[in-house]
Structure formats: C-alpha cells, structure tokens
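testing teh design pipeline on a random one, pls ignore if ur not involved
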C-alpha cells in the first residue's frame, strides 16, 4: 500500500512555526506520511504574484489531505480571502471544532466534551456584498443562506453526532433578530 501524501502549506506569520511543530508531532507519533510542500498567501504572492497559485489548488485536489498554517489575505480591494476561496473550491462547508477537557489540567469547568459544527461557506462566512463607505465610517456585508446549505450542515451535524455516539444536537441561531437568515 502506498504512503499517504499530504499537501503542506506552511502559511504566513506564525504559520511556519506551527506547521513545523505539527510535522514534528506527526513524526514522533510514528506517522509515515509523504509531504508535498506548496505555497499560498504572502509567500506565494512574493514568488508567483498570486495568493493562491493553480499549482497549489491542483496539489490539494490530487492529495486530498492538506495541513495548512494561517494565511494572510491582504486588506483592501481586489483580494478575496484565501480561506473562503479554498472552502468554496473544495466544498468545505462544515467547520468542526471539538472541545474537550483533560484530567489533570486546570480549567474553569470539568468534563467538557462538546463538538461545535458551524456552516463555513454561507451566511456571514460567504464573504458576499462587502462594502465600506468612502470615509471608512460604515461597512456592510450580505448574509446569504440557501435551504440546501442549511439542510446540508444540519444533516452533517446529526450524522457526526450519531457516528460519535452523541445523544444530543443543539441548533444555535439568532432568528429573533436575523429573521430571514437564521
């Protein structure tokens, strides 16, 4: 059986340090992966003139697994968030964030075991309709939700709960104020 190849994007800022540590952990854990390093963000912009080169997209598509550090999207007009672009390109609609307390660590609460699932490509995360006034004193953005997207994320959360042996799924919303999109 061939070794799994993982696409690695070191990222910007503290990204390379985070990724180097993650790679050390994978090695210490005995994971036998091959790695294919590509650029995105400021490193890619400096080398290629693009924030997200086609080679990077092709490598992610080919390897199917990516370890990515934080990426900077330059502030200002003409730049779309690299994270939003990747989410849309690869259908990464579910942001899954597990939180678990560990024995022997100090924390405000004990026995925490929660998995938060957030829609990652619709609503305010769509990046649609972002406008800033000329004087910079006002800004607005559009929140767009589709029935298909809402059903997809709810189904994902329910199926994750079943797979993980969970007994409860809680939907959090703000429909009292955001009546049409929550």
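output:
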């Amino acid at each position: 059986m061939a070794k799994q190849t993982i696409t690695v994007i070191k990222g910007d800022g503290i990204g390379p340090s985070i990724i180097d540590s993650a790679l050390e952990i994978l090695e210490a854990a005995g994971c036998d992966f091959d790695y294919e390093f590509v650029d995105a963000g400021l490193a890619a912009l400096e080398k290629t003139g693009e924030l997200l080169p086609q080679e990077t997209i092709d490598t992610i598509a080919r390897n199917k697994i990516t370890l990515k550090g934080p990426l900077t999207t330059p502030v200002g007009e003409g730049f779309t968030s690299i994270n939003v672009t990747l989410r849309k390109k690869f259908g990464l609609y579910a942001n899954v964030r597990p939180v678990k307390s560990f024995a022997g660590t100090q924390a405000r609460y004990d026995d925490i075991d929660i998995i938060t699932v957030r829609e990652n490509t619709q609503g305010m995360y769509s990046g649609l309709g972002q406008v800033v006034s000329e004087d910079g004193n006002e800004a607005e953005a559009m929140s767009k939700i589709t029935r298909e997207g809402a059903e997809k994320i709810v189904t994902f959360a329910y199926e994750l709960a079943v797979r993980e042996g969970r007994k409860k799924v809680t939907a959090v919303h703000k429909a009292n104020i955001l009546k049409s999109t929550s």
